[in-house]
């Protein structure tokens, strides 16, 4: 065997060893993910088929927990009400948060003066904890000493001042608007990345053809940033149907006032850890069944949406 052949063989085995070592690096993260996420999902799926006495598993009941959630009072009313609140959460997040994010991203994309500072300022709230955000906005929305009502009264809009979190008509909307303020920076960055990935040749050709204004956004910009729109939409859907932290920080887990801020996640929390419908005893079986339903809703709708929108994606 020639000297060059030996060197090639050693180099080849060294390269294979390096690739094998590189593939080992994700294993710790994969192990943590498997233990915390995958095991939890499988455990919840198994728990949902049993009745429970406190924290002790009792008899196998099949799909009875699912049937209870959908058909028996007060569980079915609470479930459908919470599901409606999650849907409203998603709709408002899409229209307000992502709508504003797109407008701001397009303004920054046009390279206005101070765009980089503007982008950083909008993203800044995202660096704070959700619990901190909830606590601060709860102070701002306080009906007696809050900054918002004080400001409205100062400028003569006394009739607009109200108990934002104490009124069933405004409590959920107030929480969602706080969420939109908190999350607009994240959506902005994703949409801006999509805008900046558009080849300048396409933009220049469209402008030379006289395409401008809303027609330019609809026929040129929108089709070319479909991947970014899909990412933002799926993230918003997942976030809206998992909404818990901000709701809990601002209103607790009981859906106050009068269940007007209840979501699937807070309903799950009460079932699994704080009693059914705010009662004194936990119901791990019902909570697990609700967790399985939430996972099914999020995964199926997200997969369908991504599959449908992929057909309308424009390849650059």
UniProtKB/TrEMBL annotation:
The regions listed as transmembrane in this protein's record are 21-50, 87-109, 121-140, 171-195, 216-241, 284-308
Query: Keywords assigned by UniProt?
Result: Cell membrane, Membrane, Transmembrane, Transmembrane helix, Transport
PROSITE patterns from the xrefs?
ABC_TM1
Taking every annotated instance into account, which residue ranges of this chain make up the domain ABC transmembrane type-1?
A: 83-305
Give the way it sits in the membrane: Multi-pass membrane protein
Q: What is one Pfam family matched by this protein?
A: BPD_transp_1
Q: Where in the cell is it found?
A: Cell membrane
**What InterPro entries does the record point to?**
ABC_transporter_permease, MetI-like, MetI-like_sf
Recorded superkingdom: Bacteria
Q: Report the sequence similarity comment from the record.
A: Belongs to the binding-protein-dependent transport system permease family.
Protein name per UniProt = Sugar ABC transporter permease
Q: What is the species listed in this Swiss-Prot or TrEMBL entry? A: Cohnella hashimotonis
């Amino acid at each position: 065997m020639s000297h060059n052949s030996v060197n090639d063989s050693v180099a080849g085995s060294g390269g294979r060893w390096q690739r094998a070592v590189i593939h080992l690096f994700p294993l710790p993260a994969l192990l943590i993910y498997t233990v915390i996420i995958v095991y939890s999902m499988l455990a919840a799926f198994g728990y949902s088929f049993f009745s429970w006495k406190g924290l002790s598993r009792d008899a196998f009941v099949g799909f009875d927990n699912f049937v209870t959630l959908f058909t028996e009072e007060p569980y079915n009313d609470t479930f459908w009400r919470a599901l409606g609140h999650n849907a409203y959460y998603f709709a408002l997040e899409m229209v307000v948060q992502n709508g504003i994010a797109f407008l701001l991203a397009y303004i920054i994309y046009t390279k206005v003066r101070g765009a980089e500072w503007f982008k950083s300022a909008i993203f800044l709230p995202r660096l704070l904890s959700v619990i901190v955000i909830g606590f601060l906005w709860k102070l701002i929305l306080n009906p007696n000493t809050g900054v918002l009502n004080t400001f409205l009264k100062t400028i003569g809009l006394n009739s607009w001042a109200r108990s934002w979190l104490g009124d069933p008509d405004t409590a959920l909307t107030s929480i969602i608007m706080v969420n939109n303020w908190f999350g607009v920076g994240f959506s902005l960055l994703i949409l801006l990345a999509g805008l900046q990935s558009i080849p300048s040749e396409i933009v220049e050709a469209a402008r030379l053809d006289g395409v401008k204004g809303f027609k330019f956004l609809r026929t040129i910009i929108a089709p070319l940033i479909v991947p970014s729109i899909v990412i933002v939409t799926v993230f918003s859907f997942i976030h809206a149907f998992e909404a818990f932290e901000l709701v809990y920080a601002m209103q607790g887990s009981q859906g106050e006032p009068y269940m007007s801020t209840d979501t699937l996640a807070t309903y799950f929390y009460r079932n699994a850890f704080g009693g059914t419908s705010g009662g004194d005893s936990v119901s791990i079986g019902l909570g697990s069944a609700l967790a399985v339903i939430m996972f099914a809703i999020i995964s199926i709708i997200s997969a369908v949406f991504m599959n449908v929108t992929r057909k309308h994606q424009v390849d650059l």
